[in-house]
Amino acid sequence: ARFVDLMAGRRFGKTLLMIYRMLLACQRPGAKVWYVAPFKNQAKEIAWIDLLRIVPREILAKPVESELYIEFKNGARISLKGADKDNLRGPGLDFIGVDEAQDLRPEVWDTILRPMLTGRNGQAMLIGTKKPANWFRNRWLSIDNNQIPESKAFYFPSTANTTVPRDEWDRIQKSTPHWIWDQEWISDHRTKDSEASGLKFSEFDRILHIAEP
Description:
Strand content: 15-25%
């Protein structure tokens, strides 16, 4: 599919998959590829080190850490962007990877990023976790219902990552409140939100802390 939306739990391996897809796009000489995270420092912390570790030195022209881009010998370039500081309007792009999509402002994809793929038949991958009443979750469900053309939606819980031992997942589940486990690790978009989801204080209890008028 031209547009791939991946909903997955934490530690599934979403960012490494994104880096792989970006490198595939850079096989095209002169390709322009963006990696977009909600914040500029987040983009650097999540993807920069892994990019430098994974990219073979023999195809690398130069990494420029001050501007967060990597240039390849075939003229392709991967630029890391933050939706909080960078001016995201720019040239046409061949591929956009949107990480932690659930934390972006709703209008960033439709009004800024998607138009930049027009004219170059650009592709995109949006990845994130479940978040109550969120644009990314609503978009995922629309794709799953075949309402958005050229798009495909995928879902994996954290436990699908077989590089993490099964007993580790068991320990996390036993030591984590069930609503956090369901939202952050299982991240199943089809289930209803837990009553506790989205609360600023997870200790809040409607029975203990609400009094009759």
